[in-house]
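User: I'm writing a short report section on ligand binding and want a predicted complex to refer to. Could you take this sequence and protoporphyrin IX containing FE and write out the structure as tokens? A short remark afterwards would be nice.
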Amino acid sequence: MDVGVGVVFGVLVILLYIMTILNYVVKAINRTFGTRMKTNAKAYKAFTNCMRFIVKNHRLFGMASFVFLIIHVFIQYSDYGYISQTGAVAASVLLVQVGLGIYGSKAKKKPKSWLYIHRAVAVLLPLAIAIHVLG
Ligand code: HEM
Ligand code: HEM
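Assistant: Sure. The structure tokens for the complex follow:
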């Protein structure tokens, strides 16, 4: 594997993506185990702090992943001289996801389906990234 600076930014996109989906994971853990976790007040406090951090910064993580993507594309394009097709597909999915996220956080009255679509695209994205990185 060629570990150039471009790759570092590609990996950063993936790490930030993981931070964004933790938004779902921490809430699901809270829904399922919240009552049981509350029996240990100290541990539950630590968990809720962590959950708050993840939820509060979700938009920031999503936007940051996109910023790192732009840097990745610039570096890879100047190093390799071509636009990776699988990369372009993954980037399009990420762009749609960030667009959906911005819409969802700005729209006053959004359709109920919005969250389901935003979640579905969150599942699609790692598949597109895997094809680009492993393909
Ligand atoms: C969500 C979008 C993307 C992610 C998460 C991502 C991530 C990565 C990662 C982790 C690598 C290193 C893989 C390895 O060295 O085996 C890589 C390689 C590469 N990426 Fe991306 N990338 C994305 C989009 C793009 C786009 C839009 C381009 C277009 C210029 C691009 C161009 C490349 C190139 C040229 C390489 C090296 C050669 C190759 O594997 O094809 N990437 N990317
Ligand atoms: C890599 C990009 C992103 C991914 C993978 C992603 C993923 C997710 C997931 C899985 C959920 C569901 C959480 C739940 O079930 O409650 C969610 C919720 C949400 N996302 Fe994103 N998201 C991304 C970017 C963004 C961006 C850029 C914004 C806004 C600027 C945004 C705004 C929201 C909002 C408002 C919610 C509703 C729940 C909440 O506020 O926590 N997302 N996102």
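A remark for your report: The chain is about 85% helix and 0% strand. The mean pLDDT is 96.
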